[in-house]
Structures are given as structure tokens and as C-alpha cells.
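User: Could you check the structure of this?
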Amino acid sequence: MNLHPYILVKRNVKLPDRRTSVQLEAYVWQSIDAILSLESIKFSLLCAELDQRRKELKLASSIRLFALIYYRTLSNHFHDEIGDGNMLHSPKSDNFNCFLTSLQQFSQYAQHAKAPSLGKPTPLLSQIQRLPRLLSLAP
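Assistant: Sure, the predicted C-alpha cells are below.
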């Protein structure tokens, strides 16, 4: 993938109520792909979750902001937990869910974002909230 900051790459995404496309810089796509791989989450689920929270914020801006929050949250957590160790190769704490924490912070920090609904959880939140329990059942 080309890493020139001015090169925009477009991807299509299917949201629950529509199809749309998102244009982001190649480096941002690499960052998002890394998050999705680390968290074992599909891009469409991330977009659906951000779409519900973003209000007037554009989806592309929401994705950029989420990536920034995610990496900042990850960095802060591992700096507090292990000091100067390598945060990507250190084991995750049992009670820390970077993805869920980042979504919560996105809701707080996005200028026009709204808080998540307390009603029926979205498919992504249901999946994320089960992760600690599923990980504790793993051999």
C-alpha cells in the first residue's frame, strides 16, 4: 500500500441502513486494518458503531478520530501497566478492553458525537462485551 499522505484510497462499506464509501489516506487505512486485525473485528461493524455515535461528524473523520483515540488509549494503558516495554508484544491485561474504552472515549470526545444507546446493544458491542468472558474460557 502506498504511504504518501496525499494519496486517498476509497473503500465501500455496508452499513445497516445503506451502502456508502469512505475515502482515507493510505496510512490511515493501514492503521485501521491493524486495529481490526488486533481486535478480530470487521470493518463494517466498526463503521456501523461509529455511524451510530457520530451525529454530524463525517464517517471518514470519525474513523480517523477513532484510530487516534485507539492508539492513544493503547499507548497510555501499556505505559501505565508496563512502563517502557513493547506494548504490541506484551500480554493484555484481563480487565482492559482497548476497543470498548476507545469507543466510549470517541463518544465523549467527538465534538458532535452522541453517547451510545443504553437500549439494545449493537452487534459489535455485544461481541466486544463477550470478549473477556470468551478469553477466560480459552485453554
